[in-house]
Amino acid sequence: MFTIIDLNYARCPLPFLSNELTEKISETVAKGKKSLLFFNRRGSARTLICRDCGYQFFCEHCDLAMIVHTSPTQKLLCHHCSMEYPMPHSCPKCHGTNLNSVGFGIQKVEENLEKLFPNIRVARIDSDKKRSEGIQFQEISEAQILLSTELGNTIALDDIELVVFLLLESEIAVPEYDIEEKIYTNIVYNARKGSDIFIQTFAPKSDLVRNITEGNYRDFLIHTLEERKTFSYPPYKELVHIWVRDQNKERIKDIIYKLKNKLETLKTSDIELYFDKELFTKRNNEYGQKIVLKGGNLSPLLETIEKEIFRNRGVSLERK
Asked: Whole-prediction pTM value?
């Protein structure tokens, strides 16, 4: 059974933990069952939505959620193609001015759950904790509330009666062209296991929510394929990320500029290349930058940089 909680009107004693949800978690624990709460830690990046109509701001070139940046100036930035937009003052759909940037880290959600449920065991499952402590199966088996990224789907979890998606917009904010497909698959996968599904969102009337709750995979597939064709994503075009990772930013810049210049010189006009020199990721004390390539046939171009890829341990290629 699906329950959709409209966060525009829900009362939340703490961010994204609505009264309706916390009551359901308490009921689930009282029955001796567990609650699995999904929250994408990369959703700590803030995305912009309209609180009046639920509109979410997307890049007009990539159909990916724009991310709010506040330094050095307020703007919306696409983490895929690096397109920038000035921070809007009104919604292009309803023209309302009630705009809100949303996003939160998973560790803060864990702290808030422990405040609301001081006598209930909470266990967090994410890559940071896995890297530092490993998968704590004993802790997970004893916990009554499990807070997880998508990593939770890789672990056999028993007695799960309630599955919650704390903030749908946080999932959509991940800059991946197939993120809606991943969200759809994850929700439907858990629903088919017989769990009650709670989805919290600022856009309860969106096509994605409607297709999920109605089980309308055909409409979802048609819509998804139309979008991918419009924006030249797989299966209609090839998409490749070339990553350069290192603990030293200057070394990354040296390698990636050489790669970028070579690719720009050799690529044909039908191949798109995106690169943002200011945008770095950081994972496990290692920085990263990427070059995005999109085109009908990328293999001939990629063959020209094979030596650079195999010669540098910090260079890797991801086909999407």
From this structure: 0.78
